[in-house]
Each structure stands twice: as C-alpha cells, then as structure tokens.
Amino acid sequence: MEIVILQVFVSLLLVGSSLILWAVTCRQRDLDHADRLALLPTENEESLPADERKV
To answer: Number of helices (H) and strands (E), helices first, in the chain?
Structure first.
C-alpha cells in the first residue's frame, strides 16, 4: 500500500510540474515562433532545376 501512495504522489508531482512548464511557455509565447519556423521553406526552389523541384 505504501508503494501506491508513493506512486500517486510522484505522479501528481509530474503532472503539476508539466502544467507549470506549460503555463510558462504559454506566457512567454514560445509556441508562435515554432509555428512560423515550420512554414519557412527549407530550400530556395528557384535555384533548383525544374525536374528536381518538389511539387
């Protein structure tokens, strides 16, 4: 029974710390930067020959 209590306590600590970290990242608005970077092209498509361009 002691193991179950310890396991619940550690699980609550992990959930609480993840919620705190989530709140900090939302407050700093770090997620918007990742979305903008995901939309940037990785290669200059105009410099590639027409047959090598990804459609």
So the answer is: 2, 0
DSSP 23-48: HHHHHHTHHHHHHHHHHS-SS-GGGS
The reported pTM is 0.52
Query: 42: closest CA among 50, 29, 30, 54?
Result: 54
Per-residue pLDDT of the chain (55 residues; tens, 9 = 90+): 899 999 999 999 999 999 999 999 888 876 666 677 777 766 665 666 666 666 5
d(CA 21, CA 13): 12
